[in-house]
Design goal:
Outer membrane efflux proteins (OEP); four-stranded antiparallel beta sheet; alpha+beta; disordered C terminus; 10% strand
């Protein structure tokens, strides 16, 4: 009897199948289309994780390394990865047999009304209980697929947080150096305009300058001075932001935050433009945020299969093996051994449409996830195109701002000399100084834009994060099986 039953179970396992759709990678764009739209040249070069080191700023490098080690966002993402791993392990066992040890003492005293005598019964029982829901239709296998995909999404999320943090620290640092350079320009102009104001005041007091000239000089000095407190406030805010990003207490006196001897913003970054088009063609699929969207689509695809499996009959097997005796002294041994098994088949017949509607619901979720994945891919392509275009155009603009600054510096110097020699009115000096200040700030702004656009470009192409270049993440994603991220 037992052999026949076990043979039947084995036959069920042999004929079991996995219902529902198998996952297929959605082909949003082909490699050829990507090459054409992004003007890519065939390249096997991999993006470096340490792209920010091209900026040649040791302080920036140190801040990013500190942030990647200490950031609370990183630690939260790591905990989410741990949680996903445990969920995967828990759900991997859901359709396996469970075993529980049990011990029972049973006592019954019968009523005299039925027996006429006060009879009593007692016995002891010790053994193993087992319950097993046999995964005939693949509901368990689909559940495993779902949590494998969610585990992979959590590992990609960790990379995405690392990439976002790296880009945000870089961008905030560039903003800080930009503001600090603006402060230096303002203070230098303040000193120059103060000396000019004092010269005019002397002339004014001696009756050699009129009210208009005096007020213009005072206006020029005051208008420069009024920008300084605002810039100092921005500097303080950016310093505190960097502290938060690196998970340290705000300290504006930190040596990393003070104005450096060499500010990278003072000169434009000499970047090789050809690198914008020498990137792997699979850069879109490797972006952590795009992989997250695809893993979520995979998980939902598996949920559809699981919902479909609930519409089919399921087989449960419960069994007990152990010992039973009236006396505890004879519980183990002799003829006290006992066992039982009870197979159960459940066939869903009428659930008021709940099972069918659940399948429709899960399919709708899957279609939604597919559209989100498509939207993510299209936005990623747009971001890369925008970033590359912005870099090229900013370099063109930067060259003109350099020329404009050099020309305006000469105009300002000459106008000051001419005024001191009485050859021109002070209004011309005022205009020249205001134009010089604007030219200086425009040039510095363009330099900062170049750094920020390059940062945005590396973020758009995934910052070097892929499945294969981070050992811990690669192992995590390999654990979920070999079906992920195949193009």
């Amino acid at each position: 009897m037992v052999k026949s039953f076990l043979s039947g179970i084995y036959l069920l396992l042999l004929v079991s199948c996995t219902v529902g759709p198998d996952y297929k990678h959605p082909d949003i764009v082909t490699d050829e289309q990507l090459q054409k739209t992004l003007n890519l040249r065939p390249s096997n070069k991999q993006i470096s994780l340490y792209w920010y080191k091209e900026f040649n700023d040791p302080i920036l490098n140190n801040l990013i390394e500190k942030g990647l080690k200490q950031s609370t966002d990183i630690k939260i993402a790591i905990e989410k990865l741990h949680q996903a791993r445990q969920n995967l392990r828990i759900n991997n066992t859901k359709y396996l047999p469970t075993f529980d040890a049990s011990g029972t003492y049973y006592y019954l005293k019968d009523s005299r009304i039925y027996t006429g005598e006060p009879l009593s019964t007692d016995y002891f029982q010790l053994g193993l209980d087992s319950i097993w829901e046999i995964d005939i239709w693949g509901g368990g296998r689909r559940l495993n697929e779902q949590y494998k995909a969610l585990f992979a999404a959590a590992s990609a999320n960790l990379q995405n947080v690392q990439l976002a943090l790296t880009a945000e620290i870089t961008s905030t640092y560039i903003q800080l150096r930009h503001v600090q350079e603006q402060l230096q320009i303002a203070r230098k102009n303040e000193a120059l305009q103060k000396s000019l104001y004092e010269l005019i005041k002397q002339k004014y007091d001696a009756g050699l300058a009129d009210d208009t000239t005096y007020n213009q000089a005072q206006y020029l000095l005051s208008s420069t001075r009024e920008t300084i407190p605002q810039l100092e406030a921005s500097e303080n805010t950016l310093q505190n932001s960097l502290s938060v990003l690196t998970s340290t207490l705000p300290d504006t006196k930190d040596s990393q935050f003070i104005y450096p001897k060499t500010n990278i913003i003072k000169e434009p970054l000499r970047y090789n433009i050809s690198k914008l088009y020498e990137i792997p063609v699979d850069v879109i699929r490797n972006r952590p945020d795009i992989r997250i969207l695809e893993y979520q689509l995979m998980a939902q695809n598996a949920a559809v299969g699981q919902a479909i499996s609930n519409m089919f009959p399921n087989v449960n097997l419960s069994a007990f093996w152990g010992y039973q005796s009236k006396n505890i002294s004879s519980l183990i041994g002799g003829g006290s051994n006992t066992y039982n098994y009870s197979p159960t088949i459940n066939l869903p017949i009428f659930h008021w449409g709940a099972l069918v509607n659940n399948v429709k619901l899960q399919k709708s979720f899957a279609r939604e996830d597919l559209q989100q994945y498509k939207q993510g891919v299209l936005e990623a392509i747009s971001e890369i195109k925008d970033a590359a275009y912005n870099i090229e155009k900013e370099y063109q603009r930067n060259q003109e701002t350099q020329k404009a600054l050099a020309a305006q510096q000469e105009v300002a110097d000459i106008s000051t000399i001419k005024y001191k020699n009485g050859l021109i009115e002070f209004s011309e000096v005022l205009t020249a100084q205001q134009n010089l200040l604007n030219a200086q700030n425009t040039y510095i702004e363009s330099n900062a834009n170049l750094y920020n656009y390059i940062t945005g470009f590396y973020k758009a192409i995934g910052g070097g994060y892929t499945i294969n270049n981070i050992p811990d993440i690669r192992k995590a994603e390999q654990d979920v099986g070999g079906v992920f991220c195949k193009g």
